[in-house]
Amino acid sequence: MVTQNYFLILFIKFILITIITHISSVNAQSDCSTAPSATLEKICRKLHQIDKNTRNTPLYEDKLRMPDGSIGAYALCGDLYSCMDLGCLCNFLGGNGTSGTNKCSFQNLKKAIRKEYRMLSDVERARFHAALNAMKRNGDYDMLSKIHSEFAETGGAHSGPAFLPWHREFIKRFEFSLKKVDPRISLPYWDSTLDGVLPTPKDSIMFSNEFMGTTDNAGNLIRGDFAGWRTLTATNILRHVGAEGNCFRERDIQWLMKQNKIDLVLGYPSPRQGCTAPSSFDTLEYTHNAIHTFVGGDMDEMKDSANDPIFFLHHCFVDMIWELWRIKNQNRNERKTVYPLDRLKCSARHHFVNSIMEPFEAIPNINGLCNEYTDNLYEYDPRPSCELGPNCGSK
């Protein structure tokens, strides 16, 4: 009898330990101290704070019902930014286009081919830099930067499943603003895996005068085509390249490509106790933030990050990684319909499937998955390979 009781007690202990271990694993991400690196722990704490802020912020739909009509100053509807094909965009750029198609009277307005930044020719890079400076002068750059600043820490832009679709729509609008200046321009991407394998990544050509510019000892951007830019807070662009963080690593991308659960792609980076969805510090919202930290300065603060033009090149690559995953792991119908479940213990309501992408009026989060983005507006040039030689295939 004693022996039976002894084994019964052991069995009960085993069951309890198993349950506790399971609960801990389900909720492990809620404890940022379990992060595998100091960088990821810092990112985790930021994302949890954003989740807290967002939960205390009314939904866009609720703001529309407020008596004072305080829906924000950036709702963009019925203008060129709402276009989802070149025919529509063409009409706003002064040409003759057929909405619902890619037909346009402008020969220069074609589907964008997004290349790696260093694969641009000297002429293409000069045009791109000139267009960025024109956007800075005409106010479009600061308008878009302010949108990101306003909603970076209190909306559906970060810390939940809407992260990728929100930024897809956001950089689409940025690319449209470039095309307002020069229809030939496509937004390039920055594949930072190329820099991460260098002996000293901060010495990459990315941070030279010919590309993204160089800084003084205090981190102020003082040389290059964007020297002298004033941020939303009237300061120089600030960087502390390589002081913390890291570039994308190939293993980060390959980990994502192997995932077949949407919860680990459009994930829940800041779940609360009781969230039963799988989570990981390897999800794209986490790994992409390490590059923000690597660049440092403005890029390391979510509300300030779009002050730096490198933000848009980095997020273009993030969007490319997501699109590569979609092509590899989903069929066309799944790409536009498969979204994580609405779970209040896993994310704020702002990330739910049909919540509006504030401040993009009338666009629910699910619409950020639609195929029209890459069917009509842009596609990605293949990633360069350094097997092609010391210059990785660039000129």
Automatic annotation (TrEMBL):
Span of domain Tyrosinase copper-binding: 308-319
Signal peptide: 1-28
Pfam families for the chain: Tyrosinase (PF00264)
InterPro entries: Di-copper_centre_dom_sf, Tyrosinase/Hemocyanin, Tyrosinase_Cu-bd
Keywords for this protein: Metal-binding, Signal
Name of the protein this chain belongs to: Tyrosinase copper-binding domain-containing protein
Matches recorded under Gene3D superfamilies: Di-copper center containing domain from catechol oxidase (1.10.1280.10)
Species this protein is from: Meloidogyne incognita (Southern root-knot nematode worm)
PANTHER family, A to Z: SHKT DOMAIN-CONTAINING PROTEIN, TYROSINASE FAMILY MEMBER
A Gene Ontology molecular function term of the record: metal ion binding
Superkingdom assignment: Eukaryota
